[in-house]
Design goal:
The complex is a heterodimer of chains A (109) and B (120). By secondary structure, chain A is mainly beta. In chain A, 0% of the residues lie in helices and 52% in strands. In chain A, strand 4 and strand 5 form a beta hairpin. The mean pLDDT of chain A is 94. Classes of the chains: A mainly beta (109), B mainly beta (120). At the A-B interface, strand 4, strand 5 and strand 8 of A face strand 5 and strand 10 of B.
Chain lengths: 109, 120
């Protein structure tokens, strides 16, 4: 089973800055089947990115997914106040089924 | 659009069954995934079912306690968790999974969640 390690655990930034969130897999993911979700307090998660770099419907281009192999990154350029939330990566399309990383909390500095 | 059933309070050892009614899309063209989140914790993938062919995948640590089913006549998915323990207290989400085939993929539409509390 692939284990996903997200870092940092917490990232404190200000609006207008750039956020870089990491998701490292314990094994090579040849298919790039990595998704990223955003979860705000008291809300259900929202899909941001699938296939490591494809934005979901309605997601602004400030959210960019990249990476391959074992290292994947979610970059949020020009942070807006609404972006402060917890972000999870997930590996999918495998047997045994994929799991989520433990999340990165993006905090307002 | 996914509408989940209301909050539940159960005693240890009991079972709970959460429903998730889908609308606005062809129910059999997508899977349904279930994810839970204990208070203050991260997301835990529980399982996936294809309403199209009945295929299921379950998280290994829940295997034997969780059962996923669907009713195509009402476009409703169900998650039953048996032999409840206190650490099953969590928010339970259903979500539309892009895959209706062999494996779960990613989830693009989420329900609002159902709170399940296990307490004596």
């Amino acid at each position: 089973e692939v284990v996903l390690t997200q870092s940092p655990g917490t990232l404190s930034l200000s609006p207008g800055q750039r956020a870089t969130l990491s998701c490292r897999a314990s094994q090579t993911i040849g298919t790039n089947f990595i998704a990223w979700y955003q979860q705000k307090v008291g809300q259900a998660p929202r899909l941001l990115i699938h296939g490591a770099s494809s934005r979901a419907t309605g997601i602004p281009d400030r959210f960019r997914g990249s990476g391959s192999g074992t290292d994947f990154t979610l970059t949020i350029t020009r942070l807006e106040p609404d972006d402060f939330a917890v972000y999870y990566c997930q590996h999918y399309g495998t047997s045994p089924p994929g799991t989520f990383g433990r999340g990165t909390k993006l905090d307002l500095k | 659009h996914l509408v989940q059933s209301g909050a539940e309070v159960k005693e240890p050892g009991a079972s709970v069954k959460v429903s998730c009614m889908a609308s606005g899309y062809t129910f059999t063209s997508y899977g349904i995934g279930w994810v839970r989140q204990a208070p203050g914790q991260g997301l835990e993938w529980m399982g996936w079912i294809s309403p199209y062919n009945g295929n299921t995948n379950y998280a290994q640590r829940l295997q034997g306690r969780v059962i996923l089913t669907t009713d195509r006549s009402t476009s409703t998915a169900y998650m039953e968790l048996r032999n409840l323990r206190s650490d099953d207290t969590a928010m339970y989400y259903c979500a539309r999974d892009i895959s209706s085939g062999l494996f779960s993929y990613y989830m693009d539409v989420w329900g609002a969640g159902t709170t399940v509390t296990v307490s004596s």
